[in-house]
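Quick question, first post here. What does this chain look like in 3D?
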Amino acid sequence: MMAELSVTRHQLVSQAETIGRVTAERDAAQTAHASILAAQSAPASVGAPVPVWRSWWPWLMLLAVVVLSITLLVWLR
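> Answer (accepted):
Ran it through. Tokens below.
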């Protein structure tokens, strides 16, 4: 009876160690998964200010073309 009790205690200790290790691995995997999801869902450039020249450059180019065209028309007359 004492031998069986000793074997059972040894099995319980082994199972408890396995449960502890598996729980730690699960927690680490959940943390890694949460950080991956957070990185994927985080917008890359939300709130980043756009430089003024980037929003105005098409209009500035159009103005430059118009001024150049008028200058050429006046000069060629």
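The helical segments are 2-41, 52-76.
The chain has a mean pLDDT of 86.
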